[in-house]
Amino acid sequence: MVMGIKGKIRRISGPVVVAEKVSGLEMHELVMVGKDELIGEVVRVEGDSATVQVYEDTVGLKPGEKVLGSGMPLAVELGPGLLMGIFDGVQRPLEVIQRLTGDFIKRGIKTPALPREKEWHFVPKLKEGEVVSGGEIMGTVQETPIFEHRCLVPPDVKGKVVSVAKEGDYTVEDIICQVSSEKGMLELKMYHKWPVREPRPYMERLEPSEPLITGQRIIDTFFPVAKGGAVAIPGGFGTGKTITSHQLAAWSNAEVIVYIGCGERGNEMTEVLLTFPEWKDPKSGRPLMERTVLIANTSNMPVSAREASVYTGITIAEYFRDMGYNVAIMADSTSRWAEALREISGRLEEMPAEEGYPSYLSSRLGEFYERAGRVKTMGGGVGSVTLIGAVSPPGGDFSEPVTVHTKRFVRCFWALDSALASMRHYPAINWLTSYSEYIDYVESWWNRLTSNRWRSQRLKAMEILKREDELKEVIRLVGSEALPEQEKLVLETARLLREGFLQQNAYDPIDTYSSPEKQFVLLDAILNFHDAASAAISKGVPASKIVDMPQLTDLAKLRMAIENERIDEIKKFSEALSAEVKKLTEVKF
Amino acid sequence: MAIQMEFRGVTKISGPLVFVEGISDVGYNELVEIRTSDGDMRRGRVLEVSKGIAVVEVFEGTTGLSTTDTSIKFLGKPLMLPVSDDMLGRVFNGTGEPIDGGPTPFTEDYRDVNGLPMNPFSRDYPNEFIQTGISAIDGMDTLVRGQKLPLFSGSGLPHNLIATQVARQATIPGEETSFAVVFVAMGIKHDEASFFKRSFEESGALKNSSLFLNLADDPPVERLLTPRCALTLAEYLAFERDIHVLVILTDMTNYAEALRETSAAREEVPSRKGYPGYMYSDFASIYERAGRIKGKKGSITQMPVLTMPNDDITHPIPDLTGYITEGQIVIDSDLHRRGIYPPINILPSLSRLMKDGIGKGKTREDHGPVASQLYSAYARSQDLRQLSAIIGEEGLTDKDRAYLRFGDAFEQRFLSQRFDENRDLETTLSLAWEMLSLLPESELTRISDRFVKQYYRPK
Ligand SMILES: Nc1ncnc2c1ncn2[C@@H]1O[C@H](COP(=O)(O)OP(=O)(O)OP(=O)(O)O)[C@@H](O)[C@H]1O
Ligand SMILES: [Mg+2]
C-alpha cells in the first residue's frame, strides 16, 4: 500500500471534508484524514481539491491537517474468519474494537477485518504446474463445523501455479500459492481484498430455478422468492420488517447469511448475537451463527459508514456466491442507507431531487439490487445471492421515493400493513398488495413436492381471500346475515386461512418454522374443509351449523400444535373433519 | 492542549450563526465562548470550519451581538459536562449549570456531551421487568430495564402526570434499590417545570434525581444540548456508578422544533414538513443512548414524551421516534375526555421488549396469554361499541353484550387508577382476570386451560 500525504484539509462540515493541494488522489480512494487518521473515501475530485466522506466522527478535525492517500479504493477483506463475525459498516470487527476501546466506540481505530493470528487448516486443491485463473478454488478450510470455506484465486489473477502450500495450519497472511503470471510472480494468500463498490465478476447470469425456502408460510406459499432473487419488505414502524428479516436469516435454506443492520437499533443486533448461537439450523442441527456474518452500523454510528455498510455486506455475499454457495443477504433498512446518501449529498451541496434525495438515488438502488442473482461463477460452479431489502417509508406511505424506486428493481414485494400489525396479525404481510414474479420459476420445485397441486391450491386460497375482501364491502352495507350461505362459508374459510395459515408467530417454538411439507398439508386441510363444507351447504346444511363446529378452532391452531415431523396428524385431522362435515348432511334442519 | 486564542473577526451574524474570519487552529464542533463588550458571555460550537473562517452556532442566540465588539474564544474541545454522583438531588439549566442555588457539584470527570456510540457487541439485551404500578403499562405493554419506550401524546393530555407517576413508582420487584431519575425538560412552560419540581420534592424522589430544565423561553439551540448533557450524566451514573437510571425526556416535539429552527437558520435543504433530513440520525443519537452493557450493573431506561401535532401519528416527530424506540404508549384524547386516567389506548400501543421481560420466573406464567386475550377482547369490544352505535344494542347477541360489558369494565376498572395509586403486578393481573371473568369461558381462546382453571371466576 502506498501511503503518502496527498493533501491538506481546507474545510470540514460534518462527515464531509474538503482537501486541497491534493496530488494523485483518485475517485473512491481510501484516505486517512487528520492527525487521528480517520478513515474516509474520496467522493469527488475537482482540480486540485478532493472531497472526502469520513467514516468516523469528525469532531476536532482542523483545516490544515493532513490527508493521507492509500492508493486503493475502499475494500473488504475476503477470506476465512468472516463467519460468526460482527463488523461495522467498513468491516472493522466490533469484537476487537471492544477489546481495544471498551464498550463505546472511539475514533481512529485501525484493525484488520480478519484475525491475523488465527490458524486455519488448509487443504490444497491446486497442483503445481496447473494453469489457474480468477475464481478457481485454491484449497479449502473448514471455517465452522458446517461451513467449508473455499479459498479463491482473486478474480484478476491468471497464470501458472508455481507452488502450493501442503495441507496444514496457516494464518491468512501466510502465502499458500505462488502463481507466475504476466504481471510477474504473484503470491496468493487465503484472503484477498475487493473494492466494495465494484460488483465481483462472474461468468454468466442464470435464470432463477429454486425457491429460497424460508419456513414462513405466507412467503413460501404465496409470495415466494427464488434463490438469486431480489425482494423488498416495505412497512411503517413496528410492522415487522426486522422480525421478518430475522426469521429469514434464521430459517432460510441458504448456505450463508449476511445480515446488515443499517442504521437501525443496537439491541436488535444484540438479539441476533444472543439468539443465533442458541438456535439450531433445522438441517444440520448446528448453531445458526456458524453460517452467519453480521454487519452492524447502527443508527447512532457514523452516518457515512452506514452508507458504506450495504456495499460491504453485498461484496461479502458475492464472495461466498463465488465459492458456489447460495447466499441470502438482508439489509435492514435500505431507507437508512438512502437517508445517509441524502445527508452526504446535502453536505456536498448537490442539487436535491425528490424530498431532498439526490437525483442518483434511483440508479444507486438499481445498482445495488442488480448485485443479487444466480450466476455461473468464474470458477465454473453455480452460486446465488438473494437480496432482501427492508424499506422504512416515512409515515408508512409507499408513494415516497425510496419505496417507489425500489419497486422498479425487485421482483417480489412483501408489503407490510400497519392495519394488520395493529390487529396483531403477524407477519403483517398484506396478501392483496404483495406480489411475487418468481412463481413461474419455483413452480416445478413445488410441484414435485405436492403432486402438481401447488399452483392450483395456492390460487384457490388466494381467490377465497380476495372474495372475502369484496364481501367486506357488501357486509358494510347490508350486514353479513343477508349473504348467501356459500358466501358465509367463504368468510369462514378466509378467517381460517388468515388465522390458521397466514398468521405465523415468530416466537412460538413450533410455529416459527413451517417446513414446505407442513405448509402444503395445512393449506390442504383448510381447503379440504372448504370443499366438504361447500358440498354440505349445497345439500341444504345451513352455514351457521358448520361455522359453529368446535373443530374449527382447533383447525386454526394446528399450525402451533403440530410439529413439522408430525404432519400426518394434520392429514388425519383433516379427514376426520371432512367426515364430520359430511355427517351434517344426514341431519334434518 | 491547544492554546486558547481570542479572535475579534466577526464578519456576519445570521440567525443563531456567527461567522468569524481570520481564525486558525480551530477544530470542527469545538466549543466557543463569545464575549460582548459589556462582559456578557455566551457559548456556542463550531458548525463548519474552513481555512480562515469558522461558522459558530451560538447556544443562547445572537440577539444583542454585534460584528464590532464581540470577541470569540475557541476552547479546543467540544462541550464537556462535569459529572459526579453529587449531581443527584440537584436542578440544572439546559446546559448542566446548577440553578437551584446550591454549590457547584463536586466533579469526578469531564465528559463530551455528544457521547460515543455504544458498541453493539457490548450491549446486553434488556429483559428485566420494571413495575411502574400502572396496570395499562405493566399488564399490557411492559417496560423493561434498558428499554426506550416513549409516550405518544397530544396537547392538553396528562402525559406529564403519567411520566411523573412512572418516575415515582418504577421499581424492580425484589430489588432494594430503586431508579435514579434523570429528568430532562425541553421547551416546557414555567408552570409545568414547577409542577415537576414540586412533585419530585413532595414525593421525596428529588434526592435521587437530577433535573435538567430548558424552558420555553430558553434559547432553542440550547435545547439541542439539554438531552445530551442529561444523557451524559445518565451514562456516567449507569456505567461508572452501577446505578439504574430512568431518563424522562419531555417534550421531544419542542426539541424537534428547535432542530427545525436551527436547520432553517443554517439554510439546509429540508426534508418532510421542513424538518431536516438528518432528524432520524439526530433522534437516534439521543434514543440509542438507552440500554445495558454486558458486565455492567447499571442501565439506562428512557421514557421520552412527545406531543403529536394534530394527533397525527404519521407526523415526522412520532414517526421517526417510532422507527427508533422499542414500541410506544399512546395516550388518547377520547379516553381523556371520558375522564379516564391514565387514558392509555392499548390498541396502538406496543412494547416490543415485553416478551423478554415477562412470564415464568420474571412476572407470572399467565402474563403473556392474559395480555394477549385482553388485547383481543378489548379490540372486539371497541368494534362492537361502534356497531351498537349504529344498529342499537338490541341487535347484538348475548356474547356481544358480554364483550361490551367487558370493554366498559376494562376502561373503568383496569385502565383507570389514581395518580397516586401504585398497583403491584399481582393486583394488576387479578384485576385482569376479573375482567376476563366477564366473558364466557369459551372465549378465552388464547389462554391455556390450566390457567383458566386456576384464575377464571365468573360471577
Ligand atoms: N412474525 C411475528 N410474530 C410475532 N410477533 C411479530 C412478528 N412480526 C412482528 N411482530 C411484532 O411486531 C413488533 C415489531 O416488529 P419489528 O421490530 O420487526 O418491526 P419493524 O418493521 O422492523 O419496525 P421498525 O421500522 O421500527 O424497525 C415486534 O416487536 C413483535 O412484537
Ligand atoms: Mg426494524
Oligomer: heterodimer
Identify the bound ligands.
Answer: adenosine-5'-triphosphate, magnesium ion
What's the mean pLDDT score of chain B? Answer: 91
Main structural class of chain B: alpha/beta
Which residue ranges of chain B are poorly predicted, with pLDDT under 50 across at least 5 consecutive positions?
none
Low-confidence blocks of residues of chain A = none
Major beta-sheet overview of chain B: 10 strands, mixed
Radius of gyration of chain A (CA) equals 27 Å
Main beta sheet strand tally, sense and closure of chain A: 10 strands, mixed
Overall form of chain B:
elongated
Please indicate the percent range of residues of chain A in DSSP E strands (runs of 2 or more): 15-25%
Number of helices of chain B: 13
Which term fits the overall shape of chain A?
globular
* Proportion of strand residues of chain B: 15-25%
Report helical residue fraction of chain A. 25-40%
Task: Give me the secondary-structure category of chain A.
Answer: alpha+beta
* Number of helices, counting only DSSP H or I runs of 4 residues or more of chain A: 16
* Amino-to-carboxy terminus distance of chain A: 88 Å
What does this structure look like?
The complex is a heterodimer of chains A (589) and B (459). Chain A contains 16 helices and 26 strands. Chain A is an alpha+beta fold and 589 residues long. In chain A, the strands form 5 sheets. In chain A, strands 8, 18, 19, 20, 21, 22, 23, 24, 25 and 26 form a 10-stranded mixed beta sheet that branches. In chain A, strands 1-2-5-4-3-6 form a 6-stranded antiparallel beta barrel. A 4-stranded antiparallel beta sheet of chain A has the order 12-11-9-14, with no helix packed on it. In chain A, α4 links the parallel β20 and β21. In chain A, α12 runs antiparallel to α13 and α12 runs parallel beside α15. The mean pLDDT of chain A is 93. Chain B is α/β, with parallel strands linked by helices. Chain B has 13 helices and 21 strands. In chain B, α3 links the parallel β15 and β16. Chain B starts with 5 loop residues before the first strand and ends with a helix. Chains A and B meet through β1, α1, α4 and α6 of A and β5, β11, α6, α7 and β21 of B. The complex binds adenosine-5'-triphosphate and magnesium ion. Adenosine-5'-triphosphate sits at the interface of chains A and B.
